[in-house]
Structures are given as C-alpha cells and as structure tokens.
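Form 7-S
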Amino acid sequence: MTTRRLLALNVGSSTLKGASYLLNAERTGAQLRVVEQSRAEIAVGVDAQERLAVLVEALSEPTGGLDAVVHRFVHGGDLRDARELDDGILSRLEALVPFAPVHQPAALAFARAARMHWPHARQGVAFDTAFHASLAPWSRRLPIPEAWDALGVRRYGFHGLAFASALRIVASHDARILQGRAVFAHLGGGCSVCAVEDGRSRDTTMALTPIGGIPSPTRSGDIDPGALLYLLRHERLDAQTLEDQLSRAAGLAGIAGHSDMRVLLADPDPQAQLAVELFAIRVAQSIAAMATGIGGLDHVVFSGGIGHRAPGLRARIVAHLGWLGLKLAAGDNDAGAARIDSGSGPAIWNVAIDEERELAESALAWL
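Output:
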C-alpha cells in the first residue's frame, strides 16, 4: 500500500483551521483515498510561524514527515484548477491582495511559513474562486466600462470550497442535485448565495471582493456606489477607512451594534430585530434572484455557522419564499436534520460543510 501524509491549512479572516490526512492507495498508480487523522482550529494571530507551531501542537499528530501541504486562498483571480505552489503562483496571488485585503495577506503569510517549516513537502493551493469558473457570461461581466473590465474588475465569486463541500454532501443523500437546479446559501462570518445548475456554478452574489453581495455579520454587502462617493467627498473618509468600515463595522454590526446571530435572534431591541429581518429578507431575495437566473428551483441548501446552526433564522428566510413552494418540516428544522423540507415543493437541506476535506481532495489533482 502507498501512503502519503497531507496537511490542509484553511486560513480565514480570524481563524486558522488545520486537518491532517493520510492518502492511501492499494497499489502504485491506484486512486488515492483520503482518510482524516485529526483537526484543530486556533486564532490567526500576527506571527504566522508561531501560529503554525501552535496549530501543529493542537493537531496532536506528528507532522514532521509530511508529504504535502495544501492551502486555501480566497482569491485566485483567473487561476482555476488546484495546483502546486511555486514562486510564480505566489507572485500572482500577491497581486490579488487589493481584491481580498482581509484574507489574502494572511493566506500568503501562512503559505510562506509552511514552505519554511516543511521545506521538503510539496505545497499546493486551491481557490474559492475556482468553483465559479463556470459562471454565466451575464453574471461574470459587470455593467462597467470595458477599460475597467480589462483591469480584472468582474464577478469572481467566493466561498467556492464551502459550496463544493455542500454540493458533495447533498449529492451523497440525493444525486439528483447534480442534474438539477439548486441555490446554496452559505451564511457565516461571510455570506453569499450561489445558483448551481447541473452541478456547475452559474451565478453568485459576491463579485470582485468578499465585501459585496448580501449583508454579513460585519460586512456591508452591496450598497449604492453613490453612497461611497458621498463619504469620500463630503465626509473626507480615505479609502483605507472606508474599506475597514465596510469590512469590519457594517452589516449586522452596523445596524445592531454587534453581530452574534444567536444574541440578535433573542434580543428584543428594535435595532437587533431590524438587523435580523433585513438579513432574512436579503437572503430570501437573493435565493429568489438566483433561482430566476437558472430557470427554477429544485433544491435550497443552507450552510455556514449561521445557516447550519440557526433553525429560527432558516425558518424566517423560508417563510419569505412560500410563494416559490418552499415549506419547512418544523420538527426536522429545529432538530438540525440534513433534509428539512415538508416533502412537497423544492427540497431544503441543512449541511455542515468541510472545507478542509475539499482542500485534501483538491490535492489529488496535482499529487
């Protein structure tokens, strides 16, 4: 039997998740099988080398003899498939920092730290944007001057590893989703909605950066560009302040003063309830819009820390979509079951995604 040892590193805006795997093959040349060994999650911090050492210790799994390390990058630009990491790819990812300023610098720092920590291991990357390589032309192209499009200002989409994981999980229950029309709502620290037709992404709410689309706990989502021009011109905000406010102080936090959905749902304060209702309606509107783009709806899939763990919020969202035939089975929804629809109309799913597993699976392409 051939065995390789792999570490998947998933760098988020505030957390570092790691999972170790064995890649086994019955014989040389046979398909590798991915077997999880351990996983851990820690805060990102500012020192990538120190944080990496803490993660390795938390994994309680020997990582000295790793054969491969695979890294998640939020933005891959025009890079599509998972691939081995080299200096040229690092340079191309560095150039994309302006498109994902909250996520890309940390991912770059940990990729460089891992190359130093395991100099003999093969290193690879997978991109959240890659899942959306199949976007419809009318989704990819933004309504802007051609010169701006030539600069790369277009819809890329994000949360690709999360959507891929959710699709894989639902397909294990009902393979018909791979030939159907599905809308995925990934609701967590960042939130986006994606239309998937025949297993391929056709449209999604986020565009050039992870700030846009539907509101998130601390991110604004789409707002009138004229509002930003007003703040730049009349309030004398500089670009960095504007970016920080849109990324870290807007969204649910901008309305209610905090962004913990569990607290917001139970908070009777009018601003908290306004934040929840605005969020639920914007998600519901986006689900309907995504279904329009693919000509109908056979499945709705909820995922992410909020989407998977907040049955009350799922109920609020679905309540706005009864006219599309969506109806929850209240008991299954409250219990956190995988399938939570009433049995009539589109199927409704609730899944716990596994981005680290998707990273490990992606490494099979270049290993």
